[in-house]
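Hi, here's the filled form for the chain we discussed.

Project: internal
Contact: R.S.
Residues: 644
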Amino acid sequence: MERSINILHLEDNPSDSQLVKSIFKNTDVNFEYFLADNEKDYIHILQTHKIDIILSDYHLPDYNGSEALQFAKSNYPHLPFVFLSGTMGEEIAIESLRNGATDYVLKNRMQRLVPAVYRAFNEAQEQKARQKAEEELSRSEENFRRSISESPLGIRIISVDGKTVYVNKAFLDIYEFHSLEEFANTLAKDRYTPKSYLQHQKREERRKNGQDVFDYEISIVRKNGEIRHVKVSRKEVLWNGAIHYQSINMDITEQKKLTEELIAFKEKAEENERLKSAFLANMSHEIRTPMNGILGFAGLLKEPNLSGDEQQEYINIIEKSGARMLNIINDIVDISKIESGQMEVHLKVTNINEQIEYIYTFFRPEVEEKGMKLFFKNGLPSKEVNLITDREKVYAILSNLVKNAVKFSFKGNIEFGYEKKSSFLEFYVRDYGIGIPIDRQKAIFDRFVQADIGDKRAFQGAGLGLSITKAYVEMLGGKMRLESVEGKGSTFYFTLPYNKEIEKNEVKNVTANEGEQNQIKPLRILIAEDDEGSAMLIKIAVQNFCKEIFLAKTGVEAVNICRTNPNIDLVLMDIKMPEMDGYEATRQIRKFNTKVIIIAQTAYALPGDKEKTIEAGCNDYISKPIKKYQLVLFIEKYFKKNDN
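And the returned structure, exactly as it came back:
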């Protein structure tokens, strides 16, 4: 801005006033800052200084923003007044705007302050320019002509019969014309958008009937096709001694855009808040339900005189509840990785037919238990099915979709498979379940949306599965789509690039059996774990391989045990422990023992964790919850006797 803006800030909180002052110091605004924290100082500054804009808190100890606004509007009616408050509700804000406030800014959204001040100041300047133009018009036609010619507002003079006799440069700039003749020779229907042209015709009819409209908005189409929004005000004036109409045109495109953005932002914020509340309620249910199963049936196992069948039934329920809890946690972590851009893709040779057949074997008992049939279709012969892709993500995509099909189907069959189409494979999962209403088919891919579907039938799930599935498909270079009819079923499709394996590499899965276990010498194992339950679980899992087991509950204990027992073969090192964490404990052990095998274990594998453990000195890394077969694979990897 060319000159300094004098800002009067009515605020009783020193830290807030200092924040506002620092915000303007960091902009290109030249300003003089006046602070008042009471009514007396506020009025005195207004009376003794030329103030350009007022910023006011709404609540002060002995004075409030409404009174400050009323005084300003009564004594300085054209002075812009912006509320800057942290406790202003929507109803109060709207009422304040009706009473003459220019704008309001919440203190938790200070990024709006400078734009709001710019806009309020500019509008005040435009208002002054408009008033000045009107004053000049009232003095004489000569002054009138000069003022409208130089006015920054678009001005058009129209005879009573509707003919345009004069336009200023600002008016031509708005419409992107070069002369009055060019404007007059352009038909109205070519200057307006279709909707505005219809409104123009209605205004013409009303004018002919003596019901002229003097203030309205129009949407115009410039010569380059750009649409602009214009506010028009009309009044009678003298032009060459005869009555004419002066039409003042103001381009309000940016104002309308800002208003629309604010409305969209408000609606989006309300939608996010509603979905968040629904998600939290659903998540509370999803976590408490399996926890109830785990804790409840764990308590029942303590009851005396339980039969073996009853014990087994309770244990099965605990296992299922634990698996459900783990699935929820995994989904939350996965969606967090996806949202933060930390989810990695690991490409390797993948046998698609094997994955299809494995998923069929896994889900068939559950499907048949519901009285339905499960079918699969492999679209390629075995020699062409090895692809380069992320095996785990492909499995997650297929299992999520088949699991949903089973979950929402109660009759008929479920079919899944794939077929080759040019340079990609198209997979499908088809069911004859409840189907999805057409107005919800896009929304179901949004995260947490299941909590908001509103279906009266209750289904388990956090509403993250399809969001994760779609993200995985896109990470692998594919696309996902849905065909569904409510009450008749759904078919989910997704594609993957046909990145066929170039070299025939055989992938051997390492499995453990009793004969192989016998090839491993008895080991001395240190379990560094501060959680007693986890330590007991690991101890049971490795007991067949052990000659001696050591237990440490802290990193310090782990270091001391290794120092006094240099013949320890394996350390299972928990990363998060009291006194000293697993990273530091590993570094300390490596100072005096470089040969012992150290395998890090932690509650969840996040991006970079494995690299951090290797850097600290660990040989490998395993994530919790630890499965027995995983530990066996690691032990075989490092301690199995070489036949050679």
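Let me know if anything looks off before we file it.
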